[in-house]
């Protein structure tokens, strides 16, 4: 590790980059604090079944999703997560093949509520679950609650997603190129994470990666969400219909 850091430091000096910029490009260790709005699995009352050791993996990617379920104001994020966990265990009883596989725990490692709170889900030691076909091992699943085909992610959600992704890249010494979306890794199978969130993962570099890079550099991400898409949703998830939150 000392040799790696030294080599990166020399590279940075030779091309006029800061150490953190070189480190995030190559996947070297970067000290990024865990986001503040973090709710542990124990705090929200997670009740998983045991996961088989065959599902253990080494994280290599951070893959962003949306829930694909429209969010209504007043909905309780904890109840939503608990219902998802319970439903996953009951899939063999309630879902037709091939969706009737048993999920012992939440399919995602982290879930982000409209107010920006980050809920810890499946332990990072285990690969995620999916209804689509791609190599699951290595992927850290990060889901934002809501359906971004029908509503827009809140600034708080995107901010938390950026900070969480930066923390994960630093924790596992991953490069910015490790960031992706469900739609990119399962091409042609899903519109996830919804057009109004997926747009931030396009371009060279993608805006989302730029925001994450700033956090890795010890800066504020300076996130600026775009205007509503011409054929896309107009309202933020926090403006959804339903019983207003108190």
TrEMBL record:
Residue ranges of domain Peptidoglycan recognition protein family in the record: 36-186
Database matches in Pfam families: Amidase_2 (PF01510)
Gene3D superfamilies membership: Peptidoglycan recognition protein-like
Record keywords: Signal
Region (Disordered): 225-246
InterPro entries for this protein: Amidase/PGRP_sf (IPR036505), Amidase_domain (IPR002502), PGRP (IPR015510), PGRP_domain_met/bac (IPR006619)
Listed CDD domains: PGRP
One of the GO BP terms on file: peptidoglycan catabolic process
Signal peptide start and end residues: 1-25
Superkingdom: Bacteria
Similarity section: Belongs to the N-acetylmuramoyl-L-alanine amidase 2 family.
This protein's name: N-acetylmuramoyl-L-alanine amidase
């Amino acid at each position: 590790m000392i040799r790696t850091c030294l080599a990166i430091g020399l590279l940075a000096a030779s091309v006029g980059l800061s150490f953190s910029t070189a480190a995030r490009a190559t996947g070297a260790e970067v000290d990024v604090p865990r986001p503040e709005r973090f709710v542990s699995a124990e705090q929200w009352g997670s009740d998983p079944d045991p996961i088989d050791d065959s599902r253990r993996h080494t994280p290599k990617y951070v893959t962003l999703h949306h829930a694909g379920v429209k969010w209504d104001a007043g909905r309780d994020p904890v109840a939503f997560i608990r219902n998802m966990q319970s439903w996953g265990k009951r899939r063999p009883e309630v879902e037709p093949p091939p969706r009737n596989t048993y999920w012992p725990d939440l399919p995602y490692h982290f879930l982000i509520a409209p107010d920006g709170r980050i809920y810890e889900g499946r332990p990072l030691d285990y690969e995620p679950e999916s209804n689509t076909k791609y190599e699951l091992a290595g992927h850290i699943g990060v889901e934002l609650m809501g359906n971004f085909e029908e509503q827009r992610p809140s600034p708080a959600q995107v901010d938390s997603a950026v900070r969480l992704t930066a923390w994960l890249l630093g924790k596992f010494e991953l490069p910015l190129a490790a960031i992706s979306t469900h739609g990119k890794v399962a091409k042609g199978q899903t519109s996830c994470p919804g057009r109004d969130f997926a747009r931030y993962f396009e371009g060279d570099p993608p805006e989302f990666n730029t925001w994450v890079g700033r956090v890795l550099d010890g800066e504020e991400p300076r996130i600026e969400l775009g205007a509503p898409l011409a054929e896309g949703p107009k309202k933020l998830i926090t403006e959804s219909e339903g019983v207003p939150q108190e």
